Amino acid sequence: MSSRTLMRNLEDFENPRIVELSADLYGASFFLMKLLPARFMLERAVEQGQLKPGFTICESSSGTFGLALAMLAVQYGYKFTLVSDWAIDRHLHRRLAELGTHVEIVQTPAPSGGLQQARLNRLAEYLREIPDSFWPSQYSNPDNQLAYGKFAELLIKKIGKVDCLVGPVGSGGSMCGTTKFLRPLFPELRAIGVDTPNSVLFGQPGGKPIELRGLGGAIVPSNLDHTQFDEVHWLTAAEAFHGANLLHKEHGLFMGPTSGAAYRVADWWSRKNPGKKVVAIFPDEGHRYVETVYNKDWLSTAPGGAAAMRPEPVVVEAPTEELKGWSTYAWHRRTRDQVLSSLVDKASNRVISPPARLTTPLSFECDSEPQHNTTMSTNEPCRVTLTALSHFDDASLAHLELAPEQAQFVEPLHTVFLGLQSSDNSELKHPFGIVVQDEIVGFFVLREKSALPEWAPPDVITLHSFRIGRSYQGNGYGKAATELISKWVASNRPYISRVMLAVNRKNLIARHIYVSCGFRETGATYCGPAGPQDILQYKLDTMRAVEAKPVE
User: What is the distance between the alpha carbons of residues 151 and 147, in angstroms, rounded to a whole number?
Assistant: First the structure.
């Protein structure tokens, strides 16, 4: 294979049929939507020299993206290894095997990120073991979004102006990519994401099973650009099943349950907004669900199958609420961090006000010369200290906003503190505030022992959620905090000689800062929802030995 034109054998299968369902309501009915981004990503990889003849494609998926890659691998002579989990549909599993795919089934969820992260962990092993392997990385590859420019062009050609786009959200590629291509032409376009309860994508607490496969997720992929969405709807599995049957009975479209969920939302919004052109994305057909979603006996025994269906959504005040049925929240094109931080009372950012739950059992000080004016204007060197926080001090950090290009790589503070509060080993996770002149300017968490992430050896402490508020950046506070971390470890964990962290390969600014602070490459990598991450370490025994000095 030497050019992009050689990868178009299945191109006709990746284009949707545009079906008018009612006045100004259209369905974009795909045979297999994931063929579009899969083909585009492989083409780009060939162009960039990342995928060559004889290579093995390796990916994590429990659904149709895996099937799309398998079909393309057969067409173009690649080997294909897919890491999935026990919930994969048996018909899909059999079809993958017939296509020659090596399928690895993961049985045990990861402590954080569930089965999705467990699959990524196993995928990382395959990438190390298999020479000449290529990972398309649907969760983080920007070509996932770019692929949908073709779909947006088709909508404009067939429909013209689009007032509202409704679609299921998983990797974020289809909804975010299509919206980004349409908005320059239609700035008032309303983008509505469809999710399901217990999915963490739009702020639901994690840790509980997600009953609807193919929708939502246990990890937040970097391809999910939350700023594209005007509102979000959550539908239960039973409500999505009902929507799929309704779509079939009323319009003859035999689609999967995620399409059913999108149809219910789009139909409701269209009826509420007559005269507006609405497009609903229907990702795949329903043949895999003949024995389940389209089987009355199975439906009667499915969870929630006997419950009454909500005729319209219930508006919730926060996306973190427990959801019992079809619900909606006004997202207003904000980042996930902005939405979740807005749920926290805007407490004072002063350590001394309110003193509430802030504690300072051990702090150290060092000097840092400000490089430019900040909210704390002073010509004197600033003393930077650490203060230990409780697991309920998120309100004291609500002012630590980040620029969008930085926020995409870190968990929102609200999510971080929910994890601290619900953790089984919370005593081994230590949150700290970085303080200058009694004002919190940054934050991080140290983890140890059984609270260490999967990629860390047992004899280290790991650094997580490190941030300096955007209005305090550029003053050396990050570097000062790194030195204070080494002092804290030397004083409290003298048997530890290394601090480690994972940094996304795309986060070049953070990598540069960490290296300037003394972190060095280990050569190890980790597959996360935002793509490959490199493991860095900070060797404490090579640092300048400083006598720990508690603050009075």
Answer: 8
Identify residue 508 by its one-letter amino acid code: L
CA 539 from chain centre, in angstroms, equals: 31
Q: For residue 492, which of 363, 300, 314 has the smallest C-alpha distance? A: 363
Asked whether the beta carbons of 430 and 445 are under 8 A apart, the reply is yes
Q: Say how far apart CA 136 and CA 214 lie, in whole Å.
A: 18
The two tokens of residue 463 are 């650094």
- What does the pLDDT look like over 147-195, one tens digit per residue? 999 999 999 999 999 999 999 999 999 999 999 999 999 999 999 999 9
Q: Are 135 and 525 in contact (CB under 8 A)?
A: no
Listed residue (32, 83, 29) closest to 57, CA to CA: 83
Q: Is 433 left (phi over 0), alpha (psi -120 to 50) or beta?
A: beta
Residue 532's CB: how many other CB atoms inside 10 A?
A: 17
Residue 519 has pLDDT above 60, yes or no: yes
Q: What is the pTM of this model?
A: 0.80
Measured from the Cβ of residue 120, the count of other Cβ atoms closer than 10 Å reads 24
Q: Lowest-confidence range among 283-297, 334-348, 381-395, 404-418?
A: 334-348
* pLDDT tens digit sequence for 440-479: 999 999 999 999 988 899 999 999 999 999 999 988 899 8
Tokens of 12: 């006709």
Q: In what order do the strands lie in the sheet with 439-447?
A: 365-368, 382-388, 429-436, 439-447, 461-468, 498-504, 531-539, 520-528
Indicate the pairing of strand 531-539 with strand 498-504. antiparallel
Torsion angle defined by CA atoms of residues 259, 82, 135 and 536, in that order, rounded to the nearest 10 degrees: 110
DSSP 313-354: PEE-S-TTS---SSEEEE-TT--HHHHHHTTS----SBTTBS
| DSSP E strand boundaries for 259-316 | 278-282, 314-315
Query: At residue 179, what is the residue type?
Result: T
Q: How far is CA 217 from CA 1, 48, 199, 200, 212, in A?
A: 34, 30, 5, 6, 10
Q: How far apart are CA 94 and CA 305, in angstroms?
A: 27
Token pair 């609807």 is found at 212
| 537 and 460 Cβ atoms separated by less than 8 Å | yes
**Exposed, middle or buried, 187 (CB in 10 Å: 0-12/13-18/19+)?**
exposed
263 to each of 35, 217, 287, 364, how far by Cα in Å? 21, 20, 18, 57
Is a pLDDT exceeding 60 seen at residue 544? no
* Calculated CA dihedral for residues 40, 44, 50, 53, nearest 10 degrees: 70
Q: Are 89 and 112 in contact (CB under 8 A)?
A: no
Cα–Cα distance, 212 to 197 (Å, whole number): 9
Instruction: Give CA–CA dist 193/172, Å, rounded.
Output: 9
Dihedral in degrees, nearest 10, Cα atoms 179, 180, 186, 189: 30
Q: Running DSSP on this structure, what letter comes out for residue 223?
A: T
